[in-house]
Design brief:
This protein has eight helices and five strands. It has about 180 residues and is α+β, with helices and mostly antiparallel strands. Strand 1 and strand 2 form a beta hairpin. The longest helix is centred in the first third of the chain and has 16 residues.
C-alpha cells in the first residue's frame, strides 16, 4: 500500500499503531505491538495514550474504541466504520492535510497566513513544502513560491487525479 511521505511523525506513528490494532482484532501486549509496529516501547506507550485521548473526541456513536488494560495490552474494538472515521479525524487534523486542502481548494497558500493559522514555524513549513516538492516532482506537479505565496503549476490532469485519490483514500481510511 502506498503511504504518503509527507505525514509528520506524530500522525505516521498514530496511523501505524491504529492500523496494527485494527488488523489484529485481539488484545496485543505492548511488546507484541512494539514488534509489529517496529517502534520503541516508550513511543508505543506514549502514542497509545494519545490515541486513547483522540478516540474520546470521536462522535458519541462510538464508545472508547481504543482500550488498554494492564496484563492484557491494547485493543481496537470498533468496526470498519469506526476505523475509517478515526483515520479521517486523525489525518484531517494534521498540518500536511490542511496544507494540501488549502492548496487544492484555493490554488494557492499564503505562507504567513498559514503559519499563523496553524501555529507552525516558517522553518517547519518550508521543510514540509520540501517534502511536497519531492513527492510531487515525479507527477510533474510543481510548487512555485513567489512573494510568500505557494501556487501549483504543471500537469493539471496529474494534480486533479492526485486530489481525487488523496481525498478519496482518506475518506475510505486508507491514508
Amino acid at each position: 500500500m502506498e503511504r504518503y511521505i509527507f505525514w509528520d511523525r506524530e500522525i505516521s506513528t498514530k496511523l501505524t499503531l491504529l492500523r496494527t490494532l485494527y488488523l489484529e482484532e485481539y488484545w496485543l501486549s505492548t511488546e507484541k505491538l512494539v514488534k509489529l509496529s517496529t517502534l520503541d516501547k516508550r513511543t508505543v506507550l506514549k502514542y497509545m495514550k494519545l490515541l486513547q485521548a483522540d478516540s474520546d473526541s470521536l462522535p458519541d456513536t462510538y464508545d472508547s474504541i481504543i482500550l488498554s488494560r494492564k496484563g492484557l495490552g491494547h485493543r481496537f474494538i470498533g468496526g470498519k466504520p469506526a476505523y475509517v472515521d478515526f483515520v479521517h479525524q486523525l489525518v484531517s487534523s494534521s498540518i500536511p492535510f490542511s496544507f494540501i486542502s488549502e492548496l487544492y481548494l484555493h490554488s494557492y497558500v499564503d505562507l504567513e497566513d498559514f503559519s499563523e493559522e496553524y501555529f507552525i514555524s516558517m522553518t517547519s513549513l518550508k521543510e514540509l513544502i520540501g517534502k511536497f516538492r519531492t513527492f510531487f516532482e515525479p507527477l510533474e506537479i510543481f510548487l512555485v513560491q513567489e512573494k510568500g505565496i505557494i501556487s501549483v503549476t504543471g500537469n493539471e490532469i496529474s494534480f486533479r487525479f492526485f486530489g481525487y485519490t488523496f481525498f478519496w483514500r482518506i475518506t475510505k481510511g486508507v491514508y
